[in-house]
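Write out this protein's structure.
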Amino acid sequence: MALTQVTSAGLKDGEIVNADLHSAAAIALSKLSTSGTAGSGNYLRGDGAWTAIDLTALSASSLTSGTVAAARLDTATTQSAGNSSTKIATTAFVSTAVTNLIGGAPGALDTLNELAAAINDDASYASTITTALGTKLPLAGGTMTGAINLNSNNITNGGTITGTFSGNITGNVTGNASTADAIDTTSSNNDLTHYLTFVDSSSSTAGETLRIYSNLKCNPNSGLIEATTFSGSGASLTNVNATTLDSIDSGSFLRSDANDTMSSQLSLTRSGAYPLVINGADNGKIVLEGSSSPYIRFREGSTDKAYIQWGNDGYFYLVNQEEGDYLMVGGGASGLKWHRDGELHTVWTSGNDGLSSGLDADLLDGVQGASYLRSDANDSYSGTLNLNGLYFEAGNVGQNLKLRGSVGSTTDVGLSLYNSNNAWCCQLYGTNGGSGAQYGFLNSNWGSWDLWKNPDGQAYVRVSGSNYQLANATNIGSGGVFSGQNFYVNYLYTNNWIYFQSNDGLYWNGGTANGWHMWPLNAYTMRFRSTHNSTCILALANSGNSTLGAVYADANGIGFTDTAENWAFRTNRGTNNAYLYDQNFSSDTNNTYSLGSNGARWSKIYAQNAARAWINVDGDDSTANIRASYGVSSLSDDAYERHTVNFSENFGNTNYCFVTGARAGSSGGGGRVVVGYDAPATSYFKYQMRNLGNNNEHVDAACLSFFGT
């Protein structure tokens, strides 16, 4: 068809470039409008109107090819300095370029010939200068290959001298040698008259061989070293007389080489044995003096417990403060006395027995000595021996020893055994109280039952705080009392079912499975309980104990693991996700079953070859509307039939694919197309709707699908 009119509204800015016009194309002058006032021709402007062009006043910007007569070139525009294009250089441009080249050089150096003469016409001047500079020491420092002769000049404002200096220093060295390791001043003939003197030049003093400012001085004439502060170890210092030590006057310290006294308390805090050792040949060790009744105190922690004291009453006391009792050592035959329960008693000795002493060696508490058992020879007794309320009596036969308790109305009796270290070993115990006669062993001295039985009855043992009946022929089997007790065996062999009479089950009480339970909740539920606070695993193995798989459950969900104990299938209720690991999700029958249903559809399906987003746009009205969409957050109306689709989730890159389709709708006019009009973005896609004449047009249904990652 003939294209009779093209308006500027039908052309997008920058849409038509030279490459869009065929090289053989020509527009006859008769096809151009002659309206206007142009004297030499007309041209078509971008806004669709015709205007005239006067070729007699053609500007340089309008000339793209051809030549211009010299008569037209009397004057030209002077270009800016530095312009390197092919435009005409005027005399003013050249003059400015030359002036800039010499850069305001003086008259004697503003030509190349003058510059050459200034460098002695040396074509290799840069190499010559480089060679000459290579023989010089840089200001930044370097390595010298020969001696430096300062010609009696000083080195001033010097920095730090580092490294090793092995030559001789014959003059004075002034400055700071703070980082030097050493300066060896010994002469080759070992003449000790050569030495190094450090002085403070502002206040040097004759005779000082070492002086650093005012803090450290050494005078060889007096042998005196003066310093403000010493630090480090003084173990190797000798003949040093210091007035203070750690700012404490020397008179405040005890002498170790002479008699001395102290006026403050001395505390020995050594945690080991013997914090105070007095090692001397003389027997006199400690003297307490200065008071009339001196004593030595003993404390348990910080609590007073006992003391020994010389009293001004002439007695020496050994006092137990915790009990309030004490022993008094006085003079004479009856000078040894014992204070107990508020009463003072004379202690019997071989020097105060007899009638006149008031002590009868044949009686003890009024009982004759013959009535007591001998401890140094064999002896016998015919009565009842009472040991702390426990009576030893003759039994019903000669070989039977009867022990009878007599403490109030108690119904029990016991016998504890201790070893030579007074450590408890065991206790035989018996009772005949409210529960009848029972006997056995206790778990501690007068503690609780450990092993016991009733006469002609069952025997029991206590383990880890629980009581267990010992198995025997009378309590094993159907209806036996053992059915109500805990029963422990290493192995349980049975030729029939193991019956549980309640909802109890199996329990593991030891080993790596300690704490596991298995029991029925009801007729159709068997519960397994692990010892882990959040995980339970049921592993399945073959006869060779090789893992075939496992059921794994935790607080979030349940799943299955494979033979390597890696996930195969898992559900997570915390995130509402199900996972199939490294497998295909397949149906057992081809084209028969569905994933979801019409009434229970999947919200989103992410797949390698499925559309990430799609949209159906109602574009027949002046404002476009979304009929249906997936993966699209919104639709923006940019201009006449130009829209932006905004994605709910960004694509990973802009290399995604889009597929479009369109329907004409009520506007009619033939087919419609949907095309993109801007570069794709990861978060949006811009499109426009056109008719077959390549004009923007309403589209009843614009459908777009997007595929990618």
